[in-house]
Amino acid sequence: MWRWRIISKEELRVNEEIRTKEVRLVSDTGEQLGIMSPREALRIAAESGLDLVEVAPNAKPPVCKIMDYGKYKYEQSKREREARKKQHVINVKEVKLRPNIEDHDFEVKARNAVRFLEDGDKVKVTIMFRGRELSHPELGRELLLRVAAYVKDLANVEKDPKLEGKNMTMILSPKQN
Q: How far apart are the C-alpha atoms of 153 and 111, rounded to whole Å?
């Protein structure tokens, strides 16, 4: 009794699911066994107690390999888990300032930016303008450049200061060691 399944791009065809006239067979040791019918290739795989797996379905003729499919899938998932462990997600932390900020408050905000950069996160520094403050954007630009100077040995300016509506923003990214 045949059961039909829809096979995703990541999933490989195994044993009776291989539906071509002929296949190129590769043994479990990696040696070429030649071109033959899938039925004969399946018989050879069954004799060795392993599965017939289609590894290159787009080749002419498709390439099938004799292997332990369960072990192969387990090792594949193990590799994917390891790759996910090694990934580092970069977050963007935000530090908000006002144009007429006091020196101590500025240093507190700048130290927060330093801490975020040391953790490997990007920092978005935002100057919020209200009312008439918007008529002097150069004050905001000076403040952003002051922040950039404060963290120059830890960060690169990824995006220069830019006025967007009532806010002026700059993005800093940590330097690669």
A: 13
